[in-house]
Amino acid sequence: QVQLQESGPGLVQPSETLSLTCSVSGDSINRGGFYWSWFRQPPGQGLEWIGYFYDSADTKYNLSFNNRVTILVDTSRSRFSLKLTSVTAADTAVYYCARGVGTVTMPYNYGVGVWGQGTTVTVSS
Amino acid sequence: DIQMTQSPSSLSASVGDTVTITCRASQFISIYLNWYQQKPGRAPRLLIYAASKLEGGVPSRFSGSGSGTDFGLTISGLQPEDFATYYCQQAYTIQSFGGGTKVETK
């Protein structure tokens, strides 16, 4: 059974880079048809999509992040990472890694069926 | 971008009630609508995909309906473990979530 686990610092200084890793077990992140994704949820708010990678190379990001997002893949270690630059207090949130299932044109048409437990990141000095 | 509007934003119900949550897309999304349940401190759980298809392991009291721009999630016979927040997500153009509906105990 596939499992995802986020890890990384819980506190990040304003203007610095937030870096998180998602470790995947029970599945290969090389398999096609899966969209290995990052989402986040600010305190008391709804869910926000950050981006995904597909097929170990293709990535797509939410444009609302103004080019601050990079998702990197380490297939040898079966993990992928999120880097979010120039963070502010507005980036304080629970960050989730997840696996969506879909097609190239509709990457989540079968939904996001597997999620990590989430990790809380606070941006503060 | 496709905007997703859920209503109501919250509702109060009792165990055994049937509740329906609606989700409206700002443009046509065919059947590409997913529903999630989220409990406090937990990750979302996929309930329904493609508007009406039940994810494996999800109780049959959950059902989804709709196509085009208007969708619904119905819980028939609310159980204590169903008190949670529910989100819709369109999957027609990348994705976007609705604002959530909190189902509270009356």
Give the terminus-to-terminus CA distance of chain A. Answer: 39 Å
The run of helices and strands of chain B is: EEEEEEEEEEE
Helix content of chain B: under 10%
Work out the radius of gyration of chain A: 14 Å
How is the biggest beta sheet of chain B arranged? 7 strands, mixed
Structure classification of chain B:
mainly beta
**Which H/E pattern describes the elements of chain A?**
EEEEEEEEEEE
* Helical stretch tally of chain A: 0
How would you name the oligomeric state of the polypeptide chains in this document? heterodimer
Average pLDDT of chain B? 97
Give me the number of helical elements of chain B: 0
Largest interface: A-B, 21 and 24 residues
Residue-averaged pLDDT of chain A, rounded? 95
Helix-strand makeup class of chain A: mainly beta
Assign an overall shape of chain B.
Answer: globular
Name the beta content range of chain A.
Answer: over 45%
Write the SSE topology.
The complex is a heterodimer of chains A (125) and B (106).
Chain A: E1 3-7, E2 11-12, E3 18-25, E4 34-41, E5 48-54, E6 58-61, E7 69-74, E8 79-84, E9 93-101, E10 112-115, E11 119-123
Parallel strand pairs in A: 2-11
Antiparallel strand pairs in A: 1-3, 3-8, 4-5, 4-9, 5-6, 7-8, 9-10, 9-11
Chain B: E1 4-7, E2 10-13, E3 18-25, E4 33-38, E5 45-49, E6 53-54, E7 62-67, E8 70-76, E9 85-90, E10 96-97, E11 101-105
Parallel strand pairs in B: 2-11
Antiparallel strand pairs in B: 1-3, 3-8, 4-5, 4-9, 5-6, 7-8, 9-10, 9-11
Structural features:
heterodimer, A: 125 residues, mainly beta, seven-stranded mixed beta sheet, four-stranded antiparallel beta sheet, 0% helix, globular, B: 106 residues, 11 strands
Walk me through this protein's architecture:
The complex is a heterodimer of chains A (125) and B (106). Chain A has no helices and eleven strands. Chain A has 125 residues and is an all-beta fold. In chain A, the strands form two sheets. In chain A, strands 2, 4, 5, 6, 9, 10 and 11 form a seven-stranded mixed β-sheet that branches. Chain A has a four-stranded antiparallel β-sheet with strand order 1-3-8-7, with no helix packed on it. With 106 residues, chain B is mainly β. Chain B has no helices and eleven strands. In chain B, the strands form two sheets. In chain B, strands 2, 4, 5, 6, 9, 10 and 11 form a seven-stranded mixed β-sheet that branches. A four-stranded antiparallel β-sheet of chain B has the order 1-3-8-7, with no helix packed on it. The radius of gyration of chain B is 13 Å and the shape is globular. The A-B interface holds A 46-49, 60, 96, 98, 100, 102, 106-113, 115-118 and B 32, 34, 36, 38, 42-46, 48-50, 55, 87, 89, 91-92, 94-100.
